[in-house]
Each structure stands twice: as C-alpha cells, then as structure tokens.
Amino acid sequence: MRRLVSFLVKAAISALLLFLSLRRVDLDSVGQRLGALDLGWIGFTMIMLCISILLVSLRWREIVAICGAKLPLATALRYSFIGQFFSQVLPSTVGGDVARIWLLARGGAGWSTAIYSVLIDRVVGVSVLAIVVVACLPWTLNLVHDPIARATLALIGFGALAAALIFLGLGLRYLRLTEKWWLTRHLATASRLAWRLCRSAGPGTRVAILSLAIHLSTVLVAWGSARAAHASVDFLQILLLVLPVILVATIPVSIAGWGVRESAMILAFSYAGLAENDGLIVSILFGAESLAVGAIGGIVWIASGYRWRSIKIIEADTLAHDPTA
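The chain above was modelled as a monomer; its predicted structure follows.
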C-alpha cells in the first residue's frame, strides 16, 4: 500500500509539473519542431547514451572491486542496460539501482557488496556532478543574471557537495556515534569503502575520469538534442545549464525525472535569456531518448532469460536485504 501511495504521489507531481511547464510555451511551435527533427543528430544522441551506459559499467566494476568482488565487463554492461530499462519504466516500484542490486547479489557477489557498490556508485556520480556544477559557477553566473536563480544554482551545487561530505564523514574511524544505530552503521560501512576508493590511486583516478566522461556524454546528448531540433543554443550554454538541471532531476520526487527536468530546463533557459520552447524541446528529447535506450535494456532483460514475474521478486528480495531501507 505504501509503495502504491508513493507511486501515485510521484505520478501526480510529474503530471502537475508537466502541466505547468507546458503552459509556459507555444505548444503548436513545439509540436512542429518535434515533427521536423534532424534524425542524424538523434542517432548521435542514442550512440552517446549507449556510450554513457558503457562508462557507467566500467565505473561500477571499479567500485565492485573495491567492495571485494569481481564483475566482468560484459556482465556489468548487461546489468547496467537492464537497470536503465527499470529506471525508465518502473522507477517508483523497482528502479534501476534496485534492479542492479538484485542482479549483482543473485550473481554471486552477495547482498552487502551489491548494495554498498550501487550506493557508492550513486554517491560518486552525484558528487562529481556537483563538483563540476560548482567549478562552472563563475561562468554560469555570467550567463544567469537573476539573483534568485544565482542563489539557487549555488545552493544546488554546494548542497549536493555538503551531502557527499556528510556521507564521507560517517566513515571516519573516531566517529563512534554511527555504530549505535543499525542504519548509520551500514552507511558508515559504505562510507569507509568510499574512503578506500579515494585512497586507492589507480581505481580512484579511473572512477573520477569515468565520472567526468559520463557527465560530458550527458552534455553531448543534450547538445545533440538541441541540434536535432535546430535550437538556438551553443555547446557552452548547454554545458553550463544542463548539468545543474540533471542534478536537480536526481531528486526522486517524480517518475524518471519527468516534470522536474522539464520545469528546471525551461527555467534555466529562461534565466539565461534563451527561448523557453528550446528548453522544453531539449528536455523532452532527452527523456524520450533515455526511454528508447531503456527499451534496449528491456530486450536485454528478456534475452537474459528473466520473466516479468521476477519484478516482484526483485522488489521483495531487495527490501528484505537492504540494510539502508
């Protein structure tokens, strides 16, 4: 019942935000431009999304190794494509991270390793994204002049960094307070594994480089979407505006980021003096392309021999074993 309520709340938030976003733009113009897309650029974005999943698989392998298990690249890639599928079609009941946890745990790595590795992978991705957003703030603030928007950008970047530092702080050896409670004890274990990653020069460097490459590929997907729709926006503007939007869209309050991403993209384009129609089109294409790549993950899921009834098993098993739930 609780999961059903959560799904309905997220669906309502997505619907409301999409409605408010669509009210701000000329829908006839948006429809005409979506009907005249450059398919060459759409193909480019699809390739970049697939490359992004490959990069995520490589990063996850490094983190799994730090957690004490081995994950072959082919297996990591298969699990990541399946995770992409679930993150798009069933984000509020299963989700890509939960699917990856279940697959890795059932693949022999064990529940603790699976949960900690996916948690660290998520934290690393968001943390590096926040670092990039903060590093780009001097140029972003030159593009965005509204004081409220400037303050919001700073709050988003530094807030995400603060959350990452709190997570790392849980793993400090002298912080015995974390050992008193079940939840903080497991979070502290994951944090200490993250510290091990940071202290490992080779794996840590590779994970950082892969994370930067993943975020660059995200920017290239958004830029390719803008080019496909003949939007009047250049690569630097996409770089400065899209990454904060993606950071906002990681907040799990809607279905697959729909609604949140569109609202944030429209506002970002508006505050930068760009056409709101362009912001909506880029966001819609980004979501649709992610959904299309997720469909590839669905094919991989079926080809791997799993059945749809396994969805309930994934959900039940992961909730039963998740120490952070």
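The chain has one domain: 2-18+37-321.
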